[in-house]
Amino acid sequence: MPHHKSAEKRVGTNELRRQRNVAATTRMRSAIKSVRSATSRSAGESALKSTSAILDRTASKGVIRREAASRQKSRLAKFVQKLPA
After folding, report:
1. Domain spans of the chain?
2. What is the pLDDT of residues 54-70, one digit of tens each?
3. Helices within 1-85 (DSSP H only)
4. Residue 56 near residue 65, CB atoms below 8 Å
5. Which tens digits make up the pLDDT trace of 33-55?
6. Which position among 25, 28, 44, 59 has the lowest Cβ density within 10 Å, counted as fewest Cβ atoms?
7. Buried b or exposed e, range 63-85, using 16+ CB within 10 angstroms
8. 35: Cβ contacts below 8 Å, ≥ 6 apart
């Protein structure tokens, strides 16, 4: 239990940030799964476009590192290129 008023405020702030991070992470993981579940290249490319934007947004908010977002986008693009046309 916090003993100071400022510490009490931090508890609330940290919880809000945690919830926001969980929501962003869930959104990102769902988007990645949508690309991975694509069966054709055209469907994969459209899913990849929206997923790239979500990954960039997640990285800009500091939920994941920019390098991690870049690596995910690279791997997903490689995956989409291997899909049948």
Report:
1. 5-82
2. 999 999 999 999 999 99
3. 5-36, 41-60, 66-82
4. no
5. 999 999 999 999 999 999 999 99
6. 25
7. bbeeeebeebbeebeeebeeeee
8. 44, 47, 48, 51, 76, 79, 80
Percent of the chain at pLDDT > 90 equals 98
| Domain boundaries 5-82, corresponding CATH code | 1.20.58.110
Q: If we measure between CA atoms, which residue out of 53, 79, 60, 56 comes closest to residue 69?
A: 56
Confidence of residue 85 (pLDDT cuts 50, 70, 90): confident
What are the residues whose beta carbons fall under 8 Å from the beta carbon of 2, sequence distance 6 or more? Answer: 8, 10, 11
